[in-house]
């Protein structure tokens, strides 16, 4: 029974995201954090395999760089994890270093990519904590695998999967309960976890995309309940017009909220307009002392989890696919009332 469910869930996700036939869908475990290292192991192995295929006399040094585009705290964490495993990580962009804080994405001409030698280019499509979302797919040399963390915006808009080598997403935002992590990978990037070659670590079986693909994600006991719930969400999306329909709703939800912030004197967005996330809307209240009162009042009205991530403070409204338009409207109404109540401060 579970095999049928496993296949059905994959089929539904393939339909929703229009995933081409030459891509495999894997259901893995260990959340986004585990992918931070799985990516390094697997894609370095691809590069090393290519190297093994070259004639000995043509072999030079191999130590391909891994390019990271750091636009917020999750891509920063992924890059840190890569550095623990490998000694040639190139931070092609670090927005915090460049600008003092996250909240913008400088144009690609300003990135310091390593070029065709890179084993991959990594980025996070939506930075959950900082509310920064790419408004287009980076334009990378197609011979280099583009790796993307879509944990917090997968299934929120249409995306051209064929532009990517690997996409991964922890389920717990737009897919289902925590416990399953979706990996979408181009088939030519599935390499056998060979024993140590040239000092490279072999891939632990549980982290190997090839092992997972060969076992249709049933290499060990799968998180069945999480996959079952995820499939219910896929069906819900399909019944309601698919990704195209939810994308429209997401756009209305986030524009209404950003308009409310724009038209206000006390709410401020820390993010540049062109890269504001449609999923996570962070904002500050001026004066700052009002934030506590704002959160308390919201909680009394049943609006929970509006506190910004502890690393950045402030307020953050996460408005994933499951949040209906009415929920956003209720928040906006509260924000406007709160501002009116405090208008004497202006
Ligand atoms: N990447 C992003 C974009 C995230 O939002 C998160 C979790 N909030 C992670 C990675 C880490 O995921 P996990 O907690 O599943 O390890």
From TrEMBL:
Record's superkingdom?
A: Eukaryota
Protein name in UniProt: 15575_t:CDS:1
Question: What organism, scientifically named, is this protein from?
Answer: Acaulospora colombiana
């Amino acid at each position: 029974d579970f095999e049928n469910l496993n296949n059905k869930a994959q089929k539904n996700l393939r339909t929703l995201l229009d995933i081409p036939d030459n891509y495999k869908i894997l259901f893995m475990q260990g959340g986004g954090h585990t992918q931070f290292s799985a990516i390094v192991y697997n894609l370095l192995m691809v590069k090393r395999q290519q190297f093994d295929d070259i004639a000995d006399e043509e072999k030079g040094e191999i130590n391909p760089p891994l390019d990271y585009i750091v636009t917020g705290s999750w891509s920063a964490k992924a890059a840190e994890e890569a550095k623990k495993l490998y000694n040639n990580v190139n931070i092609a962009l670090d927005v915090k270093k460049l600008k003092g804080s996250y909240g913008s994405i400088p144009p690609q001409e300003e990135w310091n990519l390593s070029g065709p030698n890179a084993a991959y280019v990594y980025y996070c499509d939506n930075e959950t904590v900082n509310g920064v979302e790419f408004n287009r797919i980076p334009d990378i040399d197609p011979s280099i695998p583009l790796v993307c963390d879509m944990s917090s915006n997968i299934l929120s808009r249409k995306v051209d999967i064929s532009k990517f080598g690997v996409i991964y997403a922890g389920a717990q935002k737009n897919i289902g309960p925590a416990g399953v992590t979706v990996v979408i990978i181009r088939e030519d990037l599935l390499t056998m976890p060979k024993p140590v070659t040239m000092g490279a670590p072999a891939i632990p079986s549980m982290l190997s995309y090839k092992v997972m693909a060969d076992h249709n994600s049933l290499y060990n006991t799968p998180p069945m309940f999480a996959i079952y719930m995820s499939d219910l969400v896929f069906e819900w999306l399909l019944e309601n017009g698919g990704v195209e329909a939810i994308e429209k709703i997401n756009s209305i939800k986030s524009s209404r909220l950003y308009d409310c912030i724009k038209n206000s004197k006390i709410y401020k967005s820390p993010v540049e307009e062109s890269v504001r996330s449609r999923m996570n809307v962070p904002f500050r209240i001026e004066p700052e002392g009002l934030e506590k009162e704002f959160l308390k009042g919201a909680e009394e009205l049943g609006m929970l989890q509006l506190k910004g991530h502890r690393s950045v403070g402030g307020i953050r409204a996460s408005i994933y696919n499951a949040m209906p338009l009415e929920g956003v409207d209720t928040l906006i109404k509260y924000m406007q009332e709160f501002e009116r109540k405090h208008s004497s401060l202006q």
